[in-house]
Q: What sequence folds into this?
C-alpha cells in the first residue's frame, strides 16, 4: 500500500511538471492543456490553477454518469495543476526550434512515465479518463468515440480561446498511447501471471 501511495503521488507531480515543460516549449499541447491554456489567457488565471478548476468541473459531470471517484481521482485534480503551476514559475524561457523541441520531448516523456506511475498505482482514474469511461457505460459509445468527441471539442474550444496548437499536438497524439503502454508494463502494481522456470506453470507475482 505504501509503495502504491508513493507511486501515485510521485506520478501526479511528475505529470504536472511534464505538462509545464510542454507548455513552456510553445510548439503545441495535448487537447485538455490547450483548453486550459486558452481559458488561462482569457481570464488571467494561471494555467495550473485553471487545470484544477477544469478537473473539478469534469468531476461534477461524473454524477449523472454514475461514476465514483477514487483517492487517485481527487489527488489528480489537486496535484497535477499545482505541480504544473509551480514548475512553470521556475522554468526558463527557451529560444530556437531545437531547444523547444527538446523541452517538449522531455515533457512528453515525463507525462508518459508519470501516467504509468499513477495509473499503475490503481487508485482510480483521472477525472478526464473517468468521463470517457462514463460516457461509454452510460450511452454505449466505444471508448475511442467518447475520447475523440470530447478531446476534439476541447481542442477546438481551446484553440479558439488562444491555446497553442501545433506540431507538438500531433506528436503528443501519435506517441502518448504507445509510451504510456510501455510505462505501464514497468509500473503496474496489479499482480501478473509469470512462468516459474523450474515448474513451467504460471503463478502470481
A:
Amino acid at each position: 500500500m505504501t509503495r502504491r501511495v508513493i507511486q501515485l503521488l510521485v506520478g501526479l507531480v511528475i505529470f504536472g511538471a511534464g505538462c509545464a515543460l510542454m507548455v513552456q516549449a510553445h510548439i503545441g499541447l495535448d487537447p485538455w492543456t490547450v483548453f486550459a491554456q486558452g481559458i488561462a489567457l482569457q481570464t488571467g488565471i494561471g494555467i495550473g490553477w485553471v487545470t484544477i478548476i477544469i478537473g473539478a468541473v469534469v468531476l461534477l459531470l461524473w454524477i449523472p454518469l454514475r461514476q465514483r471517484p477514487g483517492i487517485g481521482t481527487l489527488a489528480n485534480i489537486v496535484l497535477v495543476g499545482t505541480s504544473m503551476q509551480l514548475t512553470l514559475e521556475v522554468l526558463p524561457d527557451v529560444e530556437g526550434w531545437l531547444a523547444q523541441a527538446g523541452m517538449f520531448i522531455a515533457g512528453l516523456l515525463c507525462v508518459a512515465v508519470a501516467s504509468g506511475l499513477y495509473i499503475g498505482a490503481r487508485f482510480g482514474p483521472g477525472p478526464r479518463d473517468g468521463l470517457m469511461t462514463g460516457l461509454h457505460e452510460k450511452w454505449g459509445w466505444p471508448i475511442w468515440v467518447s475520447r475523440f468527441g470530447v478531446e476534439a471539442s476541447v481542442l477546438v474550444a481551446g484553440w479558439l480561446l488562444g491555446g497553442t496548437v501545433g506540431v507538438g499536438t500531433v506528436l503528443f497524439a501519435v506517441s502518448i498511447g504507445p509510451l504510456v503502454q510501455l510505462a505501464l508494463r514497468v509500473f503496474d502494481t496489479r499482480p501478473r501471471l509469470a512462468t516459474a522456470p523450474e515448474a513451467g506453470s504460471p503463478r502470481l507475482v
About this structure: The longest strand covers residues 193-195.
